[in-house]
Write a structure and sequence with these properties.
This protein is α/β, with parallel strands linked by helices. It has eight helices and ten strands. The protein has a five-stranded mixed barrel with strand order 5-9-8-6-10, surrounded by four helices. Helix 2 runs parallel beside helix 6 and helix 4 crosses helix 8. It is globular and about 50 Å long.
Length: 237
């Protein structure tokens, strides 16, 4: 156990599906898992372990932002011997052709944060997703007929909608980085996985875009992401 996770080591499966929202973790467990049990509720960061089509899996929330994700991912990999984490979350879209609840898979993640420098004395700002996990997710999406956008994700230290001038962020970005989506956790997950020799992937559903007038509500974000959730679960079988 850790100060952040009361689960016993044997309570956590080797593969973790990781939404940001604790209520989404609860929703997934109740809707998709069999014989599940709540194994962590410290700080209301719920973790459930059960079975999806006879595959043992843990669903655990990460909270919002890189610091929160960094803590839980590090502990899961380092202390609980987790091998694979698939983040499932919401994101902003940067392509005109994307619609609400389209599914995106990160090939790599860029951040101007100093997360890697502080954690590991590594001046790293771009990190790749696990090729092994991404291949399984892409194969599953193709088999299930799910349209999947793939590309670079921008991971920010703040909610981009609240930035006073988000265009300045893009001006600072290296010219060869062309993000198709933005969120706030994936860089920390992928970097910790790289540092510890583990696997990590990031699946996202579009919930807002500068090209779309409508923004998904909190209820829609909690329960309207089933296509992405099922894709992540089917990918681990």
């Amino acid at each position: 156990m850790t100060p952040h996770n009361e689960a016993k080591k044997e309570d956590i499966a080797e593969t973790v599906i990781m939404p940001g929202d604790p209520l989404r973790a609860q929703y997934i467990a109740e809707k998709y898992l069999e014989n599940y049990k709540l194994v962590n509720k410290v700080r209301n960061i719920y973790a459930y372990t059960g079975y999806y089509k006879n595959k043992r899996v843990t669903v655990m929330a990460s909270g919002m932002g890189m610091p929160s994700m960094g803590i839980y991912a590090y502990e899961l990999y380092k202390i609980y011997d987790v091998k694979n984490i698939i983040r499932i979350g919401s994101c902003g879209a940067y392509l005109k052709e994307m619609n609400l609840f389209d599914v995106i898979l990160s090939t790599d993640v860029y951040s101007e944060s100093n997360f890697a420098l502080t954690l590991n004395n590594d001046n790293c700002h771009l990190v790749k997703a696990s090729q092994e996990l991404n291949t399984k997710i892409i194969e599953t999406a193709n088999r299930e007929g799910i349209k999947l956008f793939t590309g670079t994700t921008a991971c920010l230290d703040c909610f981009d909608v609240y930035a006073t001038d988000i265009s300045k962020f893009f001006e600072r970005m290296p010219k060869d980085i062309k993000p198709i989506s933005a969120e706030m956790e994936a860089f920390a997950l992928l970097y910790v996985a790289k540092m510890l020799g583990k696997n990590a992937a990031c699946l996202m559903s579009v919930v807002d875009s500068k090209y779309i007038d409508k923004v998904a509500t909190s209820e829609e974000r909690e329960k309207g992401l089933d296509k992405m959730i099922k894709l992540a679960l089917d990918s681990i079988l």
